[in-house]
Specification:
By secondary structure, this protein is of the alpha/beta class. The chain folds into two domains: 194 residues, Glycogen Phosphorylase B (Rossmann fold), CATH 3.40.50.2000; 184 residues, Rossmann fold (3-Layer(aba) Sandwich). 36% of the residues lie in helices and 19% in strands. An eight-stranded mixed β-sheet has the order 3-4-2-1-7-8-9-10, with helices on both faces. Strand 3 and strand 4 form a beta hairpin. It is elongated, with a radius of gyration of 22 Å. The two termini are 14 Å apart.
Length: 392
């Protein structure tokens, strides 16, 4: 089976691990990833990335000439794509732009003109209802009409596409897996002392942006209800963002300033060390959208990758019920109604006062991450879906 993937995501080699693994699963599988030859990930003013070709056995990354260097939805590829398609003749083409991607429409058209007869898929993270105006509505209708399968990063995204009229096969799985060689249980005694933790401290952790939609105000209000608990605890906040000053002021108001440890964002390779300091990781995300239009400001959690990173580290997790979080956690962690500080405080007390329960929950989360969310697990799920589409 020959698989062609098109996405700017795989300019970063670390992001390729799932498809690199997929190419190794069975001897008849070949994977070619098409990426833009020039890309400005942060916008026009940022540096331009110019990826180089990579070949590893039956896996390769091929930079192609491209139009639009900083907009995923407007990304399309040049004439050299035609030569690659003629030479590779894929059985599966997957474009990771969502339902309104121009590059996906380009692939659909070339698949037909070149007589490739490849099965066509796209990946999407979009998980909010929306309406479209002409001509974007026409573009989406064309794309959905010629789609053989969809991979959605979350269940809400799958439901939205059903509402848009798509009736074909959909699989729900994240775009990227967790690297279990990095995220694994590993004691961090020296780092704990370095950041000011004592061996007896129960550590409530958060990793991410300090913005309102991540629910950090709710987290601090929940922690304020625990200040009189006899068990010693600290809160480790790893990240940065515009909400930090507000959070600092709230911590003072709640009388828990001395319990909060602030750590600026660290390199990705160091994140596993900090997660291993935590007794629990909390992702208290809060949905903000109100209107069913494409242009409305709004957000809800699309996945919460840090959850599976904590699970793989055998750290028990607590998440709100925003977006995909409860689907990711299921019974392998604790879930509370978003924005409800009292409910979050109750979940924290469960883990703080019941160490055996916390340990069991950490093991359940680890087992779930290994079974469903490693790159190996996602590669197998993806290949099974491809085979289902190709062979019926």
């Amino acid at each position: 089976m020959r698989v062609l993937i098109a996405s700017h995501t795989y300019i970063v080699d670390l992001n390729c691990e799932k498809f690199r693994t997929l190419a190794q699963l069975e001897p008849d599988v070949e994977v070619t990833i098409v990426v833009p030859k020039r890309w400005r990930p942060g916008g026009v003013q940022n540096r331009t990335i110019e990826p180089v070709p990579r070949q590893e056995g039956r896996f390769r990354v091929v930079p192609m000439s491209n139009f639009s260097q900083n907009n995923q939805g407007l990304l399309t590829f040049g004439w050299d794509l035609v030569g690659l398609l003629r030479q590779f003749r894929p059985d599966v083409i997957q474009v990771e732009q969502g339902s309104k991607g121009l590059a996906y429409a380009e692939m659909i058209t070339l698949n037909k003109l070149l007589g490739l007869k490849a099965k066509l898929l796209f990946f999407t993270w979009w998980n909010l209802p929306y309406t479209l105006k002409f001509p974007v509505s026409l573009l989406e209708a064309y794309n959905l009409k010629h789609t053989d399968g969809i991979i959605s990063g979350n269940q809400d995204g799958a439901d939205v596409l059903r509402d848009r009229g798509y009736q074909g096969p959909i699989r729900v799985m994240p775009q990227l897996g967790v690297d279990e060689s990095l995220f694994k249980p590993q004691p961090q005694t020296d780092l704990a002392a370095q950041v000011g933790l004592q061996p007896e401290d129960f550590v409530v952790g958060f990793v991410g942006r300090f913005v309102e939609e991540k629910g950090l105000l709710t987290l601090l209000r929940a922690l304020g209800q625990l200040k009189d608990q006899p068990q010693p605890w600290k809160c480790l906040l790893l990240g940065r963002g515009p909400l930090k000053e507000t959070l600092e002021n709230l911590a003072v108001e709640l009388g828990i300033r001395d319990r909060i440890l602030w750590v600026e964002s660290v390199p990705h390779d160091d994140v596993p060390r900090y997660i291993n300091l935590m007794s629990t990781l909390v992702l208290p995300s809060e949905t903000t959208y109100k209107f069913k239009t494409l242009t409305a400001a709004g957000w809800k959690e699309q996945f919460g990758h840090v959850i599976i990173e904590a699970m793989a580290s055998q750290v028990p997790v607590i998440g709100s019920d925003s977006g995909e979080i409860p689907h990711v956690i299921q019974a392998a962690g604790l879930v509370f109604p978003e924005g409800q500080a009292d409910e979050l405080a109750d979940r924290l007390r469960e883990l703080l006062t019941q160490p055996d329960f916390a340990r069991d929950l950490g093991q359940q989360g680890y087992d779930r991450a290994m079974a469903h969310y490693t790159n190996q697990a996602l590669a197998r799920q993806t290949l099974d879906f491809y085979r289902e589409l190709v062979h019926g």
